[in-house]
Write a structure and sequence with these properties.
Dehydroquinate synthase-like, alpha domain, 20 helices, metal-binding, 9 strands, 454 residues, two-stranded antiparallel sheet, 2 domains, binds zinc ion, Rossmann fold, alpha/beta
Length: 454
């Protein structure tokens, strides 16, 4: 848990003027990653002046396995805290939010969440709504979302993303996280691995679309990747070794730091994250359970890396620009496909892409020429990346999914996602956009299908 070379402690709230010209900040009050961290809540409540009275919110499973004992320990230590246990299988919706709000005492100063993504999201939302301090104690390390200010809440049946107050304190206790089923922490490794392909996409975005780039953000993301994919980490996930859990947690925190500094997600979210959104849509339509975010983006990273492998296999010195330009979508054809793939959601996508998705041959030619101009820089960055096989190896070792089939995504859905997953966002650039620009998507899709032995 090192200090940054610049002198400030990245585990405390901080902000600084960066060489990139922007002012960066990480607004989380304090982050503690250690064995026994949760037991120190009484100390931190006092040190950070979180207030006189708190409430612990957790779910039944977590309360029975770890919550009851920690709660009793805090009370023994003289902490004034109540407890509310959410019943049954919880959904992050109005009902659950309402329960948390109604069961929070009027005189509470802070809310503590103890649990996975759902409990954490709901409590963060309720704390912001009630204007209370928020403390998160994650029970598994499935993603980097624990260290952000984002919550997804289902309102009127629709998933809505909220940007809320950052937590005042996060106690990531390796004693607790190590006890989680290892598939959950394996999902966290999937999230770390997704940063590898996301980084390549982000770099391409900088070169081809002038997307804002910062070397310090890149370096922080690099620390996340090297720590989260080190042998010591990968090998310790299945046996639940504390050091491995702490490395993974620290890696995911660093990813969140990088994204907080950048103040947006392109540095940590590329094509693999867009593929994940598309696959979730497929899972919902089929009525199969959604996979964990980290599982989806881990598989997404394998696919994204495979796309990059095809792009970088091109002989750019002899690339036929005209032939590629001729492969540009006809707008009417493309709209027809979008309607077929997205159904009711198509209109908002057509609106979003009205300006963003170019159907202009001159603009396309320009984009291809830019790619060719930068192909050596792209190749250098690509050479530093692990291969898709190496990623598969790591995902297998931690017991995480690596193949779309393991997410119940079939060949047809995978191919559709390669063509259309990117359409739900504008202002982004990644391997999906680049493969389309180069007119190679058909080829990329068939090669990936072959590699995956569908
Ligand atoms: Zn910067
Ligand atoms: Zn993610």
């Amino acid at each position: 848990m090192d200090m940054q070379k610049s002198g400030f402690n990245i585990y405390e709230r901080h902000d600084f003027d960066c060489e990139c010209g922007r002012h960066h900040k990480m607004p989380i009050g304090e982050v503690v990653i250690a064995s026994g961290a949760a037991r120190k809540l009484p100390y931190y409540v006092k040190a950070l002046e979180l207030g006189k009275k708190g409430i612990l919110v957790t779910d039944e499973v977590i309360f029975e396995s770890i919550g009851r004992e920690i709660y009793a320990y805090w009370q023994e230590q003289g902490l004034k805290i109540e407890c509310y246990v959410l019943k049954g299988r919880i959904r992050p919706d109005e009902y659950t939010v309402g329960n948390v709000i109604c069961n929070t005492p009027f005189d509470a100063d802070y809310i503590v969440s103890l649990g996975g993504g759902t409990v954490t999201d709901v409590v963060r939302y309720a704390a912001t709504r009630l204007n209370l301090e928020c403390v998160s104690i994650p029970s598994a390390m499935t993603m980097d979302g624990f260290f952000t200010n984002m919550s997804i809440i289902i309102v009127d049946g629709l998933q809505v993303t909220y940007y809320l107050n950052y937590p005042s304190l996060i106690l990531a206790d390796s004693d607790i996280i190590a006890k989680a089923p290892s598939v959950m922490n394996a999902a966290g490794v999937g999230e770390v691995i997704s940063k590898i392909s996301a980084g390549m996409d982000w770099y391409a975005g900088k070169l081809i679309k002038d997307i804002y780039y910062c070397d310090r953000v890149e370096a922080m993301m690099g620390e996340c990747i090297s720590e989260g994919t080190a042998d010591e980490t990968i090998e310790g996930i299945v046996p639940g070794e504390k050091k491995a859990i702490e490395n993974l947690t620290d890696a995911l925190y660093k990813s969140a730091v990088a994204m907080a500094w950048y103040d947006s997600s392109p540095c940590g979210s590329g094509a693999e994250h867009q593929l994940n959104h598309f696959w979730i849509k497929c899972q919902d339509e089929k009525g199969v359970p959604q996979s964990m975010h980290g599982q989806e983006v881990g598989v997404g990273a394998v696919i994204n890396t495979m796309i990059w492998e095809e792009i970088m296999d091109i002989d750019f010195e002899r690339f036929d620009v005209e032939k590629a330009v001729e492969k540009i979508w006809d707008r009417t054809e493309w709209e027809k496909e979008i309607r077929a793939v997205y159904g009711e959601g198509a209109e908002s996508i057509l609106e979003l892409q009205a300006e963003n998705h170019s159907f202009d041959k001159a603009a396309r030619q320009n984009e291809i020429e830019k790619i060719i101009k930068h192909h050596e820089a792209l190749a250098r960055r690509f050479e530093a990346m692990p291969t898709s096989e190496a990623l598969i190896e790591k995902l297998k070792k931690v017991g995480g999914p690596w193949h779309p089939k393991q997410l119940q995504i079939d060949e047809d859905e995978l191919v559709k996602s390669l063509y259309f997953a990117k359409e739900t966002r504008s202002g982004r650039y990644n391997a999906l956009w680049m493969a389309e620009a180069l007119g190679i998507m058909e080829d990329v899709a068939s090669k990936i299908i072959k590699k995956l032995e569908f």
